[in-house]
Write a structure and sequence with these properties.
7-stranded mixed β-sheet, globular, 12 helices, alpha/beta, Rossmann fold
């Protein structure tokens, strides 16, 4: 079967963005974002966007790098919010546009619930009101133990407390519907965008990720992450949604010193990478796993597979 789409996934700092760009260059594709934070404009450093240091809050998409089209990056101001269903419709539109133009669509990101929705569609969960979404995030931010109690979860057996975004999602669904998220997730899904995508997992060893994270955080800080955090405060954007943002906000408010801020930022990023690795190991059936920081040579098996499936001319030897 001819493949016209790819998903390049992996934990933070794994090198997936660079690999997606190299793949797009090799197959003349379009890179489409599936990261829930990189969709926002003005926090490119904090979100580790491919556009960090390239664009500012005033830049207006569509975007490109070295002539490669990029879609769904930096498209929303911090004053707006988007649901997974809203993202899925945007992704469907960009996917259709890429395929209509004869270009493969290359989705890249590490947000599990976006990736899951792209492949499997969504459970029929009702739209969440702004009031319940705001209430859930306030509870999770100020009293996560209350959120766990409302959801009848035991902190010692649940990973949700370690992931504020997932906890807030579970709580907002419960507040809106009176039913736990698990009941909705058990219902048949609908609306998948790319169920037949070639799935690529970039998965270096945790020690390699830790070293790359340690190197990256000071660079983010030097390149303007503090100014981005100030923009987050001004827009009243929920800082718990982005690793590093809440640490920077606390530092700006004088609640922590710089050393503590950097330590906490690094710790939370590594914890997030661990959760991502677990999710990909259990929830993402990759067609190809690359167990190191990828290089362009790692593209060759994909392009050879494409030739075997009648998908292209292959990679020049």
């Amino acid at each position: 079967m001819k493949r016209t789409s790819y998903i390049v996934a992996g934990p933070t700092a794994s090198g997936k963005s660079e690999f997606a760009h190299a793949l797009a260059r090799a197959v003349d594709g379009v890179v489409i974002n599936c990261d829930s934070v990189q969709i926002y404009r003005g926090i490119e450093n904090i979100s580790a966007s491919p556009f960090a240091g390239i664009i500012g809050a005033e830049h207006v998409p569509p975007l490109q790098i070295d002539g490669i089209p990029y879609r769904l990056f930096s498209i929303l101001p911090l004053t707006e919010q988007i649901s997974v269903a809203g993202y899925l419709e945007l992704a469907r539109t960009e996917y259709s546009a890429a395929i209509s133009s004869g270009k493969p669509a290359i989705f890249v990101g590490g947000t599990g619930f976006y990736i899951n929705a792209l492949i499997h569609g969504l459970s029929p969960i009702p739209e969440i009101s702004k009031q319940n979404r705001a209430r859930a995030r306030e509870i999770v931010k100020n009293a996560p133990e209350n959120a766990m109690e409302l959801l009848n979860l035991k902190p010692q057996t649940s990973n949700l407390k370690l992931d504020p975004q997932r906890l807030a999602r579970a709580l907002e669904v419960f507040l809106e519907t009176g039913r736990p998220l698990s009941e909705w997730q058990a219902l048949p899904r609908r609306g998948a965008v790319i169920p037949d995508a070639t799935k690529i997992l970039i998965n270096p060893h945790k020690d390699i990720l830790a070293a790359r994270i340690a190197k990256r955080i000071p660079e983010m800080l030097a390149n303007g992450a503090l100014d981005e955090a100030r923009a987050i405060i001004a827009a009243n954007w929920p800082d718990e949604r982005a690793i590093g943002a809440s640490e920077l906000v606390k530092f700006i408010h004088g609640e922590t010193d710089e050393k503590t801020m950097l330590e906490n930022w690094s710790l939370r990023t590594n914890q997030y990478a661990k959760r991502q690795r677990t999710w990909f190991r259990t929830q993402f059936a990759a067609d190809l796993e690359i167990p190191h920081v990828p290089t362009e040579k790692d593209i060759i098996p994909l392009l050879r597979r494409g030739v075997a499936e009648g998908d292209g001319e292959g990679y020049p030897e």
